[in-house]
Amino acid sequence: MDLFDQPAKVRQGEELDLKAVEPFLKDHIPGLSGPVTVEQFPRGFSNLTYLLRVGDRELVLRRPPFGRKARSAHDMGREYRILKALNPAFPYCPKPLAYTEDPSIMGCPFYVMERIRGIILRRTLPQGLELSPDQMRRLCENLLDVHCELHAIDYRAVGLENFGKPEGYVRRQVEGWSERYRAARTPDAPAFDKVMQWLHDNMPPDCIKPAVIHNDFKFDNVVFAPDHPLKIVGVLDWEMATIGDPIMDLGCSLGYWVQSDDPPEFQAAATLPTNLPGALTRSEVVKRYEEKGGIRIGNAGFYFCFGLFRLAVIVQQIYYRFYHGQTKDERFKGLIRVAHILEKQSNKIVEQSDL
Fold this sequence. Notes:
Layout: H1 18-28, E1 36-40, E2 48-54, E3 57-63, H2 76-86, E4 96-100, H3 103-106, E5 110-114, H4 133-151, H5 169-184, H6 193-201, E6 211-213, E7 222-225, E8 228-235, E9 242-244, H7 246-254, H8 264-268, H9 282-293, H10 300-323, H11 335-352
Antiparallel strand pairs: 1-2, 2-3, 3-5, 4-5, 6-9, 7-8
Helix pairs in contact: 4-9, 5-10, 7-10, 10-11
């Protein structure tokens, strides 16, 4: 039984120059000895993630993708700094070990962190792992509880008071993601005009208590303990983290939350196990968040719609690279269909203003 994500051979065109990387690693991370080998984690659509083995140690290297990059995206230095600040207060963060902007090593900034070994859940459970409906419910609750733990951190106390601009956060997100979609739209992509206008017209005020937000908090960015599949031991992929509105962060998570009674087309686009028997519904997610955070979310449909739209922008930005031949990764080819599914689901929320 193998429950862990397995690295694979590095994809063509995404190789690392070990002759340049190895000296950097051994100069900046104490105690490394022995030859360096590299494999690539094949999952994920954004930053490239590699497993480095140096003797008996396992490290993870993160670098930006090749090809066109969205403005302000893939900021390796920013991701490294937030891990460094958060790790002592939020131990689910991987421990960052080294960072460089030296272009002579890889031609781009990159950083190295510890590897957190464990189980990562995706659309279907790993072979050998079975969860009862009660366990699946507790799994969802644990996921949400850790999200609430993150939002409860005093970001000033950990030195992140200048890490974002919480004032006007909702407006900047709606307008910024709308601009990004228009910039990344290809001729075969949906328009999203109705959705963008509705989001603009229905923006709620900013949350009165800004927080550290992950901006991509979901099952496949969370690591569960190998010997206790309901216990979270790690949270990964901090590239979009900032200081902002925690309800918007919850909305981003809801954008991935396909539930069992959703339309078949939306079910087909599911990438996470949120539709398995026992899983919380979106309404139950919102209710538990309200109870844990002591707040009332009066317009959950807006946040869900924003989460769907933002996900569509990310999907379209990735597809843009494939459409224009900037990547040969065949996984990206079908993302245009996902963009159309997300528009259809978003339009449904616009018409009903509900989860």
